[in-house]
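Methods, example record. To illustrate the input and output format used throughout this study, we show the complete record for Related to Protein GVP36. The sequence lines were provided to the predictor; the line carrying structure tokens was produced by it.
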Amino acid sequence: MSFNFASLKKNLQDLSSSAIQAANEAQLDQKLKNLSETVTSTTSQLPNFAAKTQRYVEEKIGRVTDISQLPSEFVELDNRVLRYKICYQSLLKVTSTFDNPSYDYPQHIRDSVNDFSNNVASKITDLSRATSTTEAQNILLSNNANLSQPKTLNFALSKASLQSCELLNKSSEDELVASALLEFSSSEAKIGEFRLQQDTMIQTRFNKKIRTMLESNFKDAGSSKGTVESCRLDYDIARSNLANNTQPEKDALLRVDMENKEDKFAQATEDAIVVFTRVLNNVKVIDLLKSFAQAQLDYHKKCIQVLSDLSFGDVDDDFGEENTVAATPEKPAVSAAAAAATTTTTGPAN
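The corresponding predicted structure is encoded as:
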């Protein structure tokens, strides 16, 4: 008796298909169930949302004046948190400038376009001279130094000085000036690096920490305040419903609802005070300012050192000598005739 493998294979395939279909149907049923629960939950919340919206609008336009007052501690802490938030936002609005390396060199876009155009032209020229596929590939993959150099004022000065040095260095009569330009170019490049280091310190030790505070602590404070406001609206609506009720049989139910809303309002207020206090205990504004000032101090100290080391070959040009003479003019001599005229006019002293 032979075993029918074909029949067994078909039965297994049918069983697998049935299992997959059942699983898909179960997933679909679960999705429909979840959707139904979401819709039901949303629908059940619509009346409450509409009532809160109406109450909020009526309070804003002054139609409702019976508004529950928040504790003075909550109000004071909330105002302090808001002031610090504005302080952080104001500082970050300015210091975010340090996130852009080219903030001190507005014409960096034009230079970038020119460098890119020159790079393309140079590659085309080099490709026309390539004698092999490997050489052509190396030309295409090579990076232009001008494109990778940061577009800042100091690096632009360094680049311009270096180009001028190469230009003047073609004549032996201008070697001293070319040497001075080369020294100046090197110094500006160093200062450019120091400035980028300063910017990195400000980005990581100042800007990043402020953004973290705004996106976490202050965001939590805002969320807590929103919860308090929502609970306050619920409580005031419940109070209004009880006060305006004309059906005595509903008084007990409305009173219980009001008391529950009051408890939630009180708890939300206490929780918010805790959050506000935690935020204020971690503002660290002075520490942030110290970090910012230290970054600037380190930068300027390094700049002073580099600029102090500039010698320019210890050669003074004519312009410098003229300035030195002009800075200390000699007292003009008085002629003998002028002295005699002065004596005649004033006469002898008594």
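Annotations derived from this record:
The two ends are 160 Å apart (CA to CA).
The first helix runs from residue 5 to 60.
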